[in-house]
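Running this now, will post back.
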Amino acid sequence: MKLVFATNNKNKLKEVQALVPSTIQIISLSDIGCNEDIPETSPTIEGNAKQKALYIKEHYGYDCFADDTGLEVEALDGAPGVYSARYAGEDKDAHANMDKLLKELEGKPSRKAQFKTVIALTTHGELKSFTGICKGTITESKKGEKGFGYDPVFLPDGYSQTFAELLLSEKNKIGHRGQAVQQLIEHLS
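Update: finished.
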């Protein structure tokens, strides 16, 4: 089975390819000639995932899946949430986003947070969604060189290493995207 993953993010593509069985071939947006930025104008993570999946189906005709992920911080009333990638500005600078987050959490008693991924799948004229959540806390400083996004400041519950310190295989076992992809795989089987 071939399935388009509606992302231009090479890190997300790598994570998902490591999770799916060899019976599912993941095709990227560049593989189908889609190089434009797909609109993400929904006020929710779920809405953005659905919007991207439907965009590919409508404009390119492919069954596909799309994800949207947000970091939801309790002390910031769920922010950055749907705006996680652009938290510190439109250039989607991960270090600027983390710096802003750490600054906003200074002096806050709670550093509880969760990563939330929603995957939307279009197949056979249907739209389904799958959600993965990983709870944890935001560290006081960046730690680790692996991963991407907020991984250097996210400490998953029950672990002493941030996502950026864990091997990809470990992160995929417990992470939000891994959970959502697992549900997707079970559905496709």
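The chain has one domain: 2-188. More later if anyone needs it.
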